[in-house]
């Protein structure tokens, strides 16, 4: 059990916000010279790419956390984990939306979460192209820069635009039933290439919600904290070893969430 008082947790929250901005600015410097980056593919999935920028920004973030909180664990998309079982775990994606990043689109971000004793308590998503820092900490509300945010007030999917995402880690059969139900009920959707950023948009009320049949923890956890602290509802992402295996992500306001949950093929906890 981690023995951390509230001041210690808030210190980490403030540090996470500042670190996300500084890491995001470093990523943006690479973005401006992206035509000179070395690009690799992860495994056999040609859509799953990684650049020198991803690796160098993650190295920067990891080293800063190690300097400030050497007792904490770290889980990064590019470097893996130094101690996934640590009571305090920083979970980081230096660039969520790498394909968008490499192709000159603005829909990418840096995402970061802090998990304490198995509970996500801090979520931060930084969009350096628009200088937008979405941040939340348990009991402190959810914010966009210095303004509080809340979910969209839609009571049906026809009341706004739904964010959706998918990947080749799941089959079409896992995703298409939700999309079909959404359209059948008069809804519309957007997929921008960054699940972490769309989750943050949902917490801020720009989208009516977000659904993806499988997300890795470095992309899924920040939006869950943001939505919960904004006053919305989410599934229990950490159920069934979510940190190790990933899980679906569903989030929306408390009125709309039960409707969306009915359309998800796999049961959500």
UniProtKB/TrEMBL annotation:
It holds the Pfam family Inositol_P. GO terms for biological process: inositol metabolic process; signal transduction; transcription antitermination. PANTHER family: INOSITOL MONOPHOSPHATASE, INOSITOL-1-MONOPHOSPHATASE-RELATED. The keyword Magnesium applies. It is an enzyme of class 3 (hydrolase). It catalyses: a myo-inositol phosphate + H2O = myo-inositol + phosphate. The keyword ATP-binding does not apply. Its cofactor is Mg(2+). Mg(2+) 2 binds at residue 93. Belongs to the inositol monophosphatase superfamily. Its EC number is 3.1.3.25. GO terms for molecular function: inositol monophosphate 1-phosphatase activity; metal ion binding. Keywords: Hydrolase, Magnesium, Metal-binding, Transcription, Transcription antitermination, Transcription regulation. SUPFAM superfamilies: Carbohydrate phosphatase. This is Nus factor SuhB. InterPro entries: Inositol_monoP_metal-BS (IPR020583), Inositol_monophosphatase-like (IPR000760).
